[in-house]
Amino acid sequence: MIEVRDLTCWRGERQILRGLSLTVADGEFLAVIGPNGAGKTTFLKCLLQLVPNWQGEILLAGQSIRDLSTRQLARQLAYVPQIPRSDTPYSVHEFVLMGRYACHSPLTAPGHGDRMAAERALALAGIGDLAERSLDTLSGGERQKAYIAAALAQEAPVLLLDEPSSQLDPRHRHEVGMLLRRLQAEQGLTIILISHDLNEASLLADRILALRDGQVAQLGPPSQIMTSDELGRIFAARFVLVQHPDSGRPVALPEE
Q1: Going by C-beta distance under 8 Å and a sequence separation of 6 or more, which residues neighbour residue 119?
Q2: Which of 48, 75, 101, 204 has the most crowded CB, counting CB atoms within 10 A?
Q3: Tally of domains within the chain
Q4: 163-182 per-position pLDDT tens digit
């Protein structure tokens, strides 16, 4: 379980996050939405201890992240960044194997257990057939799955993703979304997803955290957040809501 208590963060003299408090249950899928500058990515970076100026408490299974080393934190949280690099000169298997860095010292060569973990991660991400391909030859969707596989190789119980489908075409966006849902259901992963796509958040997540001006604007299931009134308050825009024909979940369309 992740507990965030009164999280406040600054960038220089600017306050980015203002008193965030929430709990994420084990195995939960939480999507984080909000306007540009609302503090979504900063929230993830605070969980990862990648920003220096924050106050409050962040607990993983009851333990403060301030008491964890970088490697200890990496055994708990795996991170998929916003824009994967396309010029990394490694094979997919080599790249995914690098995700095992938290499990041994820098001077220790990967062992049999590391290679097995990398192979499992490739299989979970559905890209075992790409293992010998160079990462810089992959399509955007394939590359994103490789980055997810590298995160899975850490074997951490929590997966953090910063807009993993933002540059993907509809087919690969759907594939990545279904992969995340499968990882939650079959592997029991806790997933925190930053998304600018309201419908992606609604269709995938158990709950949605909406941020505005660095504060919690709303937190609840998609049915509670995805209403014209709530979205209008969060984004200062007008939306029409319809039900998805298969899932019945709310889908937002901009009002003409």
Answers
A1: 93, 128, 131
A2: 204
A3: 2
A4: 998 888 899 899 999 999 99
